[in-house]
């Protein structure tokens, strides 16, 4: 693996000396400013309905009767960020990124977590050509898939929630910026291959998250209305995508800071799928 990574052609100064904190993902910060986000219809700017509402007064009751629930995968179905962090840390150290100093978890959260690989490449390797970044990130994803079978764990309460959804005949889809191979592996490891009716992958849409395209495709393919659908997400970019598709979002505090998720437009936050706040809302929707 190390030899393969180090053989990737790249400019002499293509691994910049970046600080391990403080660089925000450009795609995330560009999507939301003081509660302003995209509308679902045409990508235009509009004021989020959550901007002036306190978390205590937010609910899902307006969605009744509920038709569908959409899930992100990484950090939402499973706590996969520690595995991704390990894979990125090892890969970047092998190629001498940041003078070979391992990236910190803060750097990972600020620059990598929740973002599409194309955006990660542009942010971390602005001087690299597409062939080099594609190979590097493909190698990272392969490393992740080797690690996942031993380390991947479902978020608490996931299977209880899935049984509840199946029992009520609700439509459901997984919507992710992960490569399809990763998405299928994680869903299989979690025992949910037969649960999801659809997997939507950001790179197979015109634009990945934080744009609304993946969520709009899920709604269209399921035949579901955004007026009767909500989303589970754990990242700012994912929340922004769902809000831009005109759906409320429950933010999981798996790894990302709570304020970051609320600023992105989350309706309210839950710790996991056992959270009483979630079940109080679900029982009002069917």
TrEMBL record:
<protein>
    <recommendedName>
        <fullName>Haloacid dehalogenase-like hydrolase domain-containing protein Sgpp</fullName>
    </recommendedName>
</protein>
<keyword id="KW-0479">Metal-binding</keyword>
<dbReference type="InterPro" id="IPR041492">
    <property type="entry name" value="HAD_2"/>
</dbReference>
<dbReference type="InterPro" id="IPR006439">
    <property type="entry name" value="HAD-SF_hydro_IA"/>
</dbReference>
<dbReference type="Pfam" id="PF13419">
    <property type="entry name" value="HAD_2"/>
</dbReference>
<dbReference type="InterPro" id="IPR023198">
    <property type="entry name" value="PGP-like_dom2"/>
</dbReference>
<keyword id="KW-0460">Magnesium</keyword>
<keyword id="KW-0119">Carbohydrate metabolism</keyword>
<dbReference type="GO" id="GO:0003824">
    <property type="term" value="F:catalytic activity"/>
</dbReference>
<dbReference type="InterPro" id="IPR036412">
    <property type="entry name" value="HAD-like_sf"/>
</dbReference>
<dbReference type="InterPro" id="IPR051600">
    <property type="entry name" value="Beta-PGM-like"/>
</dbReference>
<dbReference type="InterPro" id="IPR023214">
    <property type="entry name" value="HAD_sf"/>
</dbReference>
<dbReference type="GO" id="GO:0046872">
    <property type="term" value="F:metal ion binding"/>
</dbReference>
């Amino acid at each position: 693996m190390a030899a393969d990574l180090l053989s990737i052609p790249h400019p002499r100064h293509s691994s910049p000396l970046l600080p391990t904190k403080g660089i925000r993902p450009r795609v995330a910060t560009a999507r939301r400013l003081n509660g302003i986000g995209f509308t679902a219809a045409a990508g235009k700017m509009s004021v989020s309905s959550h901007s002036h509402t306190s978390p205590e007064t937010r609910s899902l009751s307006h969605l009744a009767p509920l038709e569908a629930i959409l899930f992100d995968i990484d950090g939402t179905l499973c706590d996969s960020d520690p595995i991704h962090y390990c894979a990125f840390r090892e890969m970047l150290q092998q190629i001498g990124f940041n003078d070979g100093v391992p990236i910190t978890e803060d750097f990972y959260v600020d620059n990598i977590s929740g973002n599409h690989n194309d955006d990660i490449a542009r942010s971390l390797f602005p001087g690299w050509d597409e062939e080099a970044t594609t190979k590097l990130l493909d190698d990272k994803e392969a490393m992740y898939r080797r690690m996942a079978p031993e380390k991947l764990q479902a978020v608490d309460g996931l299977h209880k929630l899935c049984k509840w959804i199946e029992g009520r005949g609700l439509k459901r889809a997984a919507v992710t910026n992960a490569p399809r191979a990763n998405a299928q592996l994680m869903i299989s490891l979690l025992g949910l291959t037969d649960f999801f009716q659809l997997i939507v992958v950001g790179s197979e849409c015109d634009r990945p998250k934080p744009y609304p395209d993946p969520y709009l495709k899920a709604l269209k393919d399921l035949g579901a209305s955004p007026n009767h659908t909500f989303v589970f997400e754990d990242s700012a970019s994912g929340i922004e995508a769902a809000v831009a598709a005109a759906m409320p979002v429950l933010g999981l505090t798996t790894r990302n800071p709570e304020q970051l998720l609320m600023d992105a437009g989350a309706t309210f936050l839950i710790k996991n799928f056992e959270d009483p706040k979630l079940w109080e809302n679900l029982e009002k929707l069917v």
